């Protein structure tokens, strides 16, 4: 055994098995050990061929993302792939489980590939603002052509080895252990005395016209987009136009340029942040109990329908205390059946797990959605190891001992917020966190009472209050919303308030405004709309009107208003909104309401549609530079000090040359115009 490589000889075949926790990531140590093992196999006259495989549940997860934030450590994967491809004896890759990212490059560099039928192969780099490296953009088209290679690289999604599109990637697909078949194939190649290296494969390049047609079609689809997708297209085009070695060099230049781009750094940041968010102290303090039976206390008016559907979809048993909610859930599954989203068996299975009434000792988890309304009946008592938690339905989780907010729409926004007060049993928190993870939701921990209404509500409250202040200054809702979209949000604050309901927003903002010392004048634009019966999207009128063709500025709010310069001087509206968000984040961090700064970015990206390519508002602040944001804050504080007067944390960061994530800010979006 060589470090992280298990090596054994089987009748002239050296089997090199990668064995590194977790998931055989291609870390520098593993790469170095594999390089050493290959050199030893090349020098051993008794070795006639090599098989490379992975220990445990998968082949390899590729390079750990944290490595991309520093210098690329030798031996880099590209060099290792060259060594494999140029190896003087046949090399066969035996693939099972997951083969991700750079591990695909390793497999393609081998002289042959044997895969278990359920092997999952993915090139997820585009989702991180990067392009595949390790020769993937040059070797993959040689095997399968431009069309399939581009589909895999641009989609970034896992594809099983048995997918017909991948047929030409593999020399053999087996339902059994691929290592056995790979050893047999390696011996055959050694006996034959010749094999074709991937660089010399021609079948994917055999139709030059079809290859160019695929490039043209994808280029039309990507027209004007730029970024990683455009670079992938250029690299695959180079596979046809350039000699192999020059193609590899071209890929490496694109790879390193894209690696250092602000978009790639931001997306790697949010990817890692989502995994850190799941680390809660309670998971190490107590055992998480499975929460398979869930009692929902409240009615359809509390917004429980989509959550009930979600729980039933993922296999939970659900008990509801409200007859109307039970009927609404049944109608939802009937509609899904009618529209072909669900078959009859699936509908019946879900309804079989739905019951009405409150039964003590039945539920693992009791979710109380009644919030501030008077409790007209006691909560059902859960089983001995069960959990009782308040379910947030819009009013916030202030003062909750244990609460959970599942961001909605529950099926599409895969994030939850768990409110935890001092003294809450760790097992209850751990069980909720584990349930969220099992349901594919990223859970973020919010400490009570410091988090107030909640982390997400705290951040959006700052956004709403800043937007209302700009409206009072004379900017139209449409202009403010457009600025928020330029900042990175999918929807602007006025549209978000309309979607939620203006009365509910006003009720929650009054508490936040009081907490930060804001006088009553802030509510003017909201009070004006409510006085006119414009309560939001649900009634068809708010800051926007909602005809069938889509939102449009409400009558009386569509005029130009004052110019940006008249309201904000030289400050762009998007920078004013961003500064309010950064100040709110600093307040939450100072109060220790949130475990880490990156958790806030996760909530904003997953819960509010903040653009992943910016990494969330705090990552964006580091990239722009906190000095520039502090300058904006000082100027804006004259408008409303409670919103914009810089928190001490911001002043300390700037004084010490720090950012939220410990790195100096770099100019980022200064070229964007409002």
UniProtKB/TrEMBL annotation:
BP term (GO), one: fatty acid beta-oxidation
Gene Ontology molecular function, alphabetical: (3S)-3-hydroxyacyl-CoA dehydrogenase (NAD+) activity; enoyl-CoA hydratase activity; isomerase activity
Ranges where the 3-hydroxyacyl-CoA dehydrogenase C-terminal domain occurs: 461-546
Transmembrane region(s): none
The keyword Nuclease is annotated on this UniProt entry: no
Subcellular location: Peroxisome
Alphabetic keyword roster: Isomerase, Lipid degradation, Lipid metabolism, Lyase, Multifunctional enzyme, Peroxisome
Family, as annotated: Belongs to the enoyl-CoA hydratase/isomerase family.
The protein's name in its UniProt record: 3-hydroxyacyl-CoA dehydrogenase
Organism the protein comes from: Roseovarius lutimaris
Lineage of origin: Bacteria, Pseudomonadati, Pseudomonadota, Alphaproteobacteria, Rhodobacterales
